[in-house]
Amino acid sequence: MTAAPRKSLRLRLMLGLSLTICLIWGGVAAWQFTNMQRELRTMLDERLIASAKMVVGIVQQFQHAELAAAPGAHSDALLSVIARDGVACEVSLVRSEVDILPIARTSNIPDLASAGSAGFGQITKGGKQWRTYVQEENGVRVATADRLDVRDHLVETFVRTLVLPFALALGGILLLTWWICSHSLQPLEQLREELGRRPPQDPTPVQSGHDTQELAPLVDSLNQLLARMDASIEHERRWTADAAHELRTPLTAIKTHVQVAQLALAAKRPDAAPEIAANALRQAGEGIDHMHATLEQLLQLARVESASAGEARSTTGAGIAQAFQLACSQSQQRASDEGGPLPARPLDMRQLPADPQAWQAIQLPLAPALLTCAITNLIDNALRHHRGAEQVSVTLQWQADAAPANGTDNPGTPGMGRVEMCVHDRGPGLTAQECEQAMQRFWRKSGSGPGSGLGLTIVRRIAESVGGTLVLEPGAPGLLARLSLPAQAAMPRVAEG
Q1: Which class for 115: exposed (0-12), middle (13-18), buried (19 or more C-beta within 10 A)?
Q2: Using one digit for the tens of pLDDT, what is the confidence trace for 29-43?
Q3: Sign of CA dihedral 149, 154, 156, 157
Q4: Could you tell me which residues are beta bridge partners of residue 472?
Q5: Which residues are bridge partners to 418 per DSSP?
Q6: Closest CA to 492 of 401, 363, 311
Q7: Among 10, 27, 355, 490, whose CB has the most other CB atoms within 10 angstroms?
Q8: pLDDT tens sequence across 182-205
Q9: Which of 247, 201, 194 is CA-nearest to residue 219?
Q10: How far is C-alpha 281 from the chain's CA centre?
Q11: Domain ranges, ordered by start, for the chain
Q12: Is CATH 1.10.1670 the classification given to domain 205-306?
């Protein structure tokens, strides 16, 4: 599979800034060019008007009769005046509407420039286009003109004058922008180098980027991730060490008992060998059962800590009571199989409220299998340590946040509340300090006592996964375990049909 091409932040930032600069500068340059072109043409037209007015004022100083009688005598004097500012100009006397007598003309003005009506016009002479302005006053007509190609050349020169500095400035800005972008991205490069030099197991916080406002949140999040990963690795390391230690003890005992059985069978005392071997193998079998139970609970705890997201996530109504009944039944059967000193009916089970309809609107955010697992581990732990002829008290109770609206045991349509499971045995019990330690992995009051020290840990992890709690209290006598799970109002089912 071909890897997707990497995207460059530097190139993206560079292109974005360059495009922005080009668009803004281009828009300003286009607006300035259009405006200046219009003003330039207006200025050239005003130049033609000003020149025409000046020449008219000068010609008015001469007598019309003298100009008409001897136009050549005054031609040099007029030419020296009208050619002073370099504008093409022609002076004519108007005798009638069709009789126009030119009396002076610069060499660079086309013929018939003064023909036509007063004002601006455009003529073509010798393949060249001219912009003309004609002014008539007191029988004197003055025509001024500019070549349009000269005007266009002037506009092109202006454009080159405008574009060249713009292009040079834009190139300089782009180079400067590239340098600034590269320099501004140096904190990212330093962060990459620090992470590249970091050993795989180094959990120390990252320092690069803390002094950069934009990178500080990313570095903080990265440091928090490193801290969580370090805690997780340390947690797994302790888990592995504890599990190895817990499994090594029964394996060592099994090996010892098997060796004893082998030595007994190999001894030359046939009268005692079978009894010794049988006793050793029985103890080895108990060790195997203990190790098997420990492995089962290890797997169970692993499934709880990595519960599948596709699994059912709630238990509603009758499912809660069914999980409770199933857990009690399984625990009683397991205790009976182990042959412990228990009464005929070891459990005193209570469900409050007793009416099954009262539970129909209650929902727990916990899969039925996990709910059964939690209750089973609590009851197993109680039965394992229970002493005497009294029964183990097991109570399942719904506790609403608000008092029932109808004043009965039926909570009606509940809001938020809690489902509480209480297990009270009459065993040796625990102190307040031991109650805190009892929920740690592999903790047992006596190293040679029954159980693997994982049952209460599993219950606590299940409770914490949905925001619940597990509390152990000295029961005087025995131990009181209180499992509290948050409940919600069950979603109404849509009728099919």
Answers
A1: middle
A2: 788 778 888 888 888
A3: positive
A4: 481
A5: 399, 486
A6: 363
A7: 490
A8: 888 788 888 888 888 888 778 888
A9: 194
A10: 61
A11: 9-167, 205-306, 311-489
A12: no
pTM: 0.48
As given in the structure block, the two tokens for residue 455 are 């049952």
Q: How many CA atoms lie within 13 A of 419 on its CB side?
A: 28
| Total count of residues recorded for the chain | 497
Is the Cβ–Cβ distance between 82 and 113 less than 8 Å?
Answer: no
CATH 3.30.450.20 fits 9-167, yes or no: yes
Distance CA 424, CA 476 (A): 10
Tokens of 19: 């495009």
What does the DSSP 8-state code read for residue 449? S
How many Å is the Cα radius of gyration of the chain? Answer: 52
pLDDT tens, position by position, 75-133: 566 666 666 666 788 888 776 666 677 777 777 777 766 666 788 888 887 778 888 88
**Thinking of the domain 311-489, which architecture would CATH place it in?**
2-Layer Sandwich (3.30)
CATH topology agreement for domains 205-306 and 311-489: no
